[in-house]
Amino acid sequence: MLATLIPLFDDKMSVCAYSVFARKENHFLNPGFEGGARYDGAGTIHELEVVSNMGVATLSGGKEVFVPVNQFSIFSEISLQCTVPAGKVVLLMDNTILPEEQFIRRVKELKGQGYKLAMRKLQITDFEPYREILSKCDYILLNHAKIHIDKARLYFNSVYPQIKLCAVNVDTQEEYDELTKDGGYDLYEGGFFRMPVKDSETEVSPLKVNYIELLNVVNNPDFDLTEAADVIGKDPALVISLLEIVNRMALNSEIKSIRHAAAMMGQKELKRWINTAVTKELCSDKPSEITRLVMIRAKFAENLAESFELAMMAPELFIMGLFSALDIMLEKPMREALDMVVVPKNVKAALLEGEGDYAKVLNFIRSYEDADWTEVSRIMVLENMDMDKVYEAYLGALRWYRDLIPAN
Predict the structure, then answer these.
(1) Strand pairing report for 64-68 and 139-143
(2) Which residue, 83, 164, 190, 321, shows the most beta carbons closer than 10 Å to its own?
(3) Bridge partners of residue 5, in order along the sequence
(4) Which residues have a Cβ under 8 Å from the Cβ of 233 and sit 6 or more positions away?
(5) Residue 116, strand partner residues
(6) How does 130-141 read in b/e, with b if 16+ C-beta sit within 10 Å?
(7) HSE on the CB side for 98, CA within 13 Å?
(8) For 9-44, how does the pLDDT look when each residue is reduced to its tens digit (9 = 90+)?
(9) Greater model confidence, 114 or 83
(10) Tell me: the pLDDT tens digits for 299-325?
(11) How far apart are CA 236 and CA 242, in angstroms?
(12) Within 13 Å, how many C-alpha atoms sit on residue 398's CB side?
């Protein structure tokens, strides 16, 4: 099993829902599934297995999850495959589900059971023939490049006033900005939120400079605990977070100073906590999905270390994941951003040049995040990776993030 989540944003860059995409088989080890991977197991909806195993609290922070169904699986006993509330699940249909009586009847049944419904991959000429199905839908996913949103909005407001319009394939920040300015869509899906920064004239804020100083202290070999504690002392949020952690560790000990707290944690744990806490703070003025992205990416990279025969390098892979969006955090091109912080040379080579063993891990993770299962399968074959271990590595990263930021 492989699975990943794709966020859907509103016009404030807040995540409103996630689409879950899963694959049961390795494409290269099971070539017969090419072009028909969605239909393996016919009535089995593997995405629902993921949702049920993880629960919406861990998987999506309690937000709705879009789950693809096809012309076979829509007739399965969906309620038996899904253990989460029906109202949190959006069944995502496509044009393989035809506007015929058997499908229309089934759509009405599912709506009656409390599931939300969405439609994708329809052409403009399909809107009228699909009238009975669309009248039951809560969302429709539209390719923004192939539609006049003003006309579409008028049409849907008139004919299907209950339906929310979702723009898909929004690949750049410029596209997102233009679409939100026009105001025609309710939700937006695409890779725009993680696009690299090409150039910037902005100065890094003084608070972020303090965070960078702290990163540089702890990412030097054999860093000094006292020096790290003194830098932590400049930021109240980090002080509070550190004291909360240490107080849980030492219930019967009185923490007398920040330096005392740092010494209680020890060099290894303090370094790990600082890298994680500082990354979270660097993302605080960005969409919350950036924090989620880099945190899960970091833990996923660490969890994949053994599969890539890099078990001894797991801590550095964790840092690579955290810093993989450093350009977005600092609003600087990646080369400039990395010049500001101390990072291991292998991390720098992966992030800047796409070279070395770490780059293989990063490229794998990016393909995984995009649900590019063909490329993911190809890499798993080349690296002799076990699919179940990859899946567990991803689920482990989701659980870790849930426990790290429970309020998310």
Answers:
(1) unpaired
(2) 321
(3) 20
(4) 239, 258
(5) 90
(6) beebbebbbbbb
(7) 4
(8) 999 999 999 999 998 776 555 555 444 444 445 568
(9) 114
(10) 999 999 999 999 999 999 999 999 999
(11) 10
(12) 21
What is the rounded distance in angstroms from the CA atom of residue 295 to the CA atom of residue 323? 10
**201 φ, ψ to 5°?**
-105, -5
Q: Is 387:48 a contact under the CB 8 Å cutoff?
A: no
* CA end-to-end span of the chain: 26
What distance lies between CA 68 and its chain's CA centroid?
Answer: 17
* Spatial contact of 371 and 6, defined as CB atoms under 8 Å apart: yes
Q: Global pTM?
A: 0.85
Domain ranges of the chain: 2-192, 196-282, 286-408
Beta bridge partners of 19: 6, 66
Q: Tell whether the torsion through CA atoms of 174, 177, 183 and 187 is positive or negative.
A: positive
With beta carbons less than 8 A apart as the criterion, state whether 207 and 238 touch.
no
Alpha helices in 16-66 (DSSP H): 46-60
Q: Give the residue among 213, 217, 216, 195 at the shortest CA–CA distance from 204.
A: 213
Query: Considering only the top CATH level, what class is 2-192?
Result: alpha beta
**By three-state DSSP, how is residue 64 classified?**
strand
Alpha-carbon Rg for the chain, nearest whole angstrom, is 23
The pLDDT tens digits of the residues spanning 202-238 come to 677 777 888 888 888 888 877 888 888 888 888 887 8
Helix (H, G, I), strand (E, B) or coil at 344: coil
Place of tokens 């016919």: 42
